[in-house]
Amino acid sequence: MHRALAQFVLDPLDLLTAALLVLMFSFAWIVSLPWLCRLWGYLLGNGMAILGLHAKLGLTERHITSYIRFSVPYPRIEGIAPDARRWWSTAVVVGLAYAGSYLFPQRATPVKYLLRAVLLIQFSALLYFLLAGASFPHTPDSYMEGLVSYKIALISFVPALFGLTYYIFIFSAFKKIALTIMAMAHLSLFLPLHILLQAMILEKSVLFMPVLYIAFGLPLDIVIVLAFYSWGMSWASTSNVKRV
Fold first, then answer.
1. Domains of the chain: which residue ranges?
2. Alpha-carbon gap, residue 128 to 26, rounded angstroms
3. 38-66: b or e for each residue (b if 16 or more CB lie within 10 Å)?
């Protein structure tokens, strides 16, 4: 029987180990967060210069305690409404992509419907900017600041998430520690790259902000966490079935 279907009872030692690992990683993350924010700010600033983006580095002060303060870095970009040329070119691309989805083979059905969902989001953005674009309430600055803050919050939650869903299974302490470090390190390195890519797109027009937020924003980080968790669950455990 697969361990996901096996009934088991948690030992007090299992709960204690999971709690200690959660506390250890959470404490290490909180302590290192100010230095990580400085690193992200350095990478974002140099990345914007190398890419030639018309953006400045913004900083928003945050604090966890009176002793632990950090500045959330994010690109500050001027919001540009879509002109007629950009609107029509985007509409043509959306239409062609939707028509092309019918050419996908049967085995690519999940990809086909995922593509159509993304195109539907962009179509709704096109419709909104056609009818009420002047009343669009969001700015790239607030969006980028919020995205970075959400990413930091998600990474902060990884130890607790793994504590509830991974540490309770019979894996060695080395595997539990290794999986958590790899997941948090990957998300930390992904943050500036993801933000710079979104900044490059948003610099063109705020027309793409809805699809970036709904389809290519925080959901990408969630998928990364799920991928690491799935990979870790595929590792050989200390015992196939826990005693009942």
1. 12-79+137-233, 82-135
2. 42
3. ebbbebbbebbeeeebebebbeeeeeeee
Residue 54: DSSP 8-state: S
pLDDT over 90 percentage in the chain? 72
**Predicted local distance difference test score (pLDDT) of residue 79:** 83
Q: What is the pTM of this model?
A: 0.87
**DSSP code, position 125:** H
172 three-class SS: coil
Q: Of 29, 19, 31, which is closest to residue 151 (Cα–Cα)?
A: 29
Please provide the average confidence, as pLDDT, over all residues in the chain: 89
DSSP 106: G
* Residue corresponding to tokens 């990474």: 155
Count the neighbouring beta carbons within 10 Å of the beta carbon of residue 228.
20
Is residue 61 classed as helix, strand or coil in its secondary structure?
strand
Contact present, 238 and 170 (Cβ < 8 Å): yes
Q: List beta partners, residue 97.
A: none
Q: What pLDDT is attached to residue 2? A: 56
**Beta strand 55-63 with 69-77: parallel, antiparallel or unpaired?**
antiparallel
**pLDDT at residue 185, rounded to an integer:** 97
Say if residues 92 and 71 touch (Cβ distance below 8 Å). no
Residues 153, 218: Cα–Cα separation, whole Å: 11
How many Å apart are CA 111 and CA 115, to the nearest integer? Answer: 6
- Other C-beta atoms closer than 10 Å to the C-beta of 204 total 12
Asked if 140 and 217 touch (Cβ cutoff 8 Å), the reply is no
